[in-house]
Amino acid sequence: MYANSTLRSIGAGLLLLAAACTVDKDPHSVPNGNENDPIFTNVSAALVSSCVSCHSAGSGRTFITSMDSAALLNSGLVNPSTPATSSLLTKPRSASHGGGIVASWTARDSALVAAWIGLLPNVNVTTLTAVKTDFAPVIDGMGESTWLQTQPLNMSIGGGWAAATSVTARAMYDDGYLYLYLRWYDNQASYRRNPWVKAADGSWAVAASKPAPINGENWGAYMARNGGAAFNPEGSQFYYEDKLAVIWNTYGAGTVPGFETVGCAVACHDPTNNRNPGTTYNAVRQDSAAKKYLTVSGQILDMWHWKLVRHNMNAIVDDQYVRYWLPVNDATAANGGRASDAGDQGYGSNPSLNGRPRYKSATQGYRPAIYSWPGTDNAEITDAEAAGLPAGTEVANMITVPVTLSRADVMGKAVYDPVLKVWTMEIRRRLVTTDATNDVQFSDLNRAYKFGVAVFDNAQIEHSYSGVPFSLVFRR
Ligand code: HEC
Questions:
Q1: Which of 267, 293, 308, 315 has the most beta carbons within 10 angstroms of its beta carbon?
Q2: What's the CA-to-centroid distance between 97 and ligand 1, angstroms?
């Protein structure tokens, strides 16, 4: 309804002041007598009336209708340079929005909010700028002071189980490599990934990652059923590991146009939600469970998947990708469109021998600090030894070997600080790899590379995620 130029010509200074300040009065009052004035009071009223049912405080979403104007600006959900591209406006009009196309969101609402966004100061809060460096960081999760020459990007995440609500990123590059620094909050480090556990009757079994979900329930219902407000993914019945993933669009034949505007949500499909994003479990019918995949043949997203127990000790971030996939009801379909680059995955289970775990670590015993050890350190457990262990004994279940070929393209290591309760991770990847199909190639330093981030807090799949795409740019 209001073109930005018209608004600017009728007193931009005054309106900018009104818009950029936090105006949290009664959202139903109309101070200037005009409900179409692009002031925050009117914007807030429009957002509350159409969006509060799914975006209230506590909904786990990044966008919350009670956000004030400053919080919205800093969330990265609004883009003052091109208001119409703001995800706050594109999401309620998009079929790939978790809430679908929001019928009550009118053209007037959209024009009002677009006009308001156009008046906001143009801070580019979704862009991560990689700075050229002569001092390559050591990939050890220690984060040397060289990183301080970079500008941090704070990326909001929501949904899922994570204690973190954001991930802070920094980036550097040199002639050979891109370097990333990521930092996120976690109230507890988790490394008891599916150990063997001895039962009271003397039998052994591999502990499940989590209490089994009910087919057809979603993550929210699962969490409500397993503790509600007291839900704790670090509880003793959860046997998994901390993970983090970064997904990149690729820019060759496999580029995913939708990723540029909606980010990770383009790959998230829940059959119970018309294949729009959603979180439904189903262990019986794989074609009824939410999965990650792409809907156009040939499309590829590059996925860097860090796994504390399986890869951190070898400073590897698993180089994987997301591809085209057609939902089928097939027991082999559990991974949907998730696939791995060529090479050895770098880990295997501690095999069963006479119904009990075969190995322990020769140097670290049954339970190494991070519940895994290198295969070169295997020591046989004898039947007599296994029989003599007390009930409740846990024996680690992950044995690592080197990751090879393209799968080893991404080097990364994270360190947990138990006092600050934060993970610090450093990542290194060649700007250009030999896997041009499944890896993003940072070959054009003038391009903006879109990416998204997810945190898995002792979660197999129930990750928190960014609702908007971020851009990596290179400062020449
Ligand atoms: C019926 C529930 C529902 C309604 C109503 C709804 N949304 Fe959403 N929205 C979702 C879900 C679920 C997601 C997460 C999946 C995704 O990113 O699409 C989401 C994600 C978003 C995101 C990405 C950031 C985030 O919080 O994850 C934005 C922005 C957004 N919605 C805007 C809106 C706006 C604006 C309205 C009102 C005009 C609205 N939504 C109404 C369910 C809803």
A1: 267
A2: 6
Assign 73 a pLDDT band (cuts: 50, 70, 90). Answer: confident
Q: Tell whether 18 is covered by a domain.
A: no
In a domain, 9, yes or no: no
- Read off the pTM: 0.76
Same domain, 47 and 182: no
- Rounded to whole angstroms, the Cα distance separating 58 from 228 reads 12
DSSP SS3 for 360: strand
- What CA–CA distance (Å, rounded) separates 430 from 176? 6
Angstrom distances, CA of residue 126 to CA of 76, 123, 167, 168: 5, 9, 12, 11
Tell me: do 162 and 295 sit in the same domain: yes
Beta-bridge partners for 430: 177
Q: Which pLDDT score, from 0 to 100, does residue 193 have?
A: 97
Range of the domain at 318: 127-189+238-347+401-474
Q: Give the number of domains in the chain.
A: 2
Of 50, 55, 266, the one to substitute when testing ligand 1's pocket (max ligand atoms within 8 A of C-beta) is 55
For residues 384 and 365, give the distance between their C-alpha atoms in angstroms, rounded to a whole number.
16
Q: Judge if 86 and 131 occupy the same domain.
A: no
Q: Tell me the average pLDDT across 294-312.
A: 98
User: What pLDDT does residue 122 have?
Assistant: 66
* DSSP characters over 223-290: HHHTTGGG--TTSTT-----EEEEEEE--STT--HHHHHHGGGGGEEBGGGTTBS--B--SS-GGGS-
Q: What is the mean pLDDT of the chain?
A: 90
Helix residue spans in 277-403 (DSSP H) = 308-311, 383-388
Q: Which of 152, 178, 179, 177 is nearest to 167 (CA)?
A: 152
Number of residues that make up the chain = 476
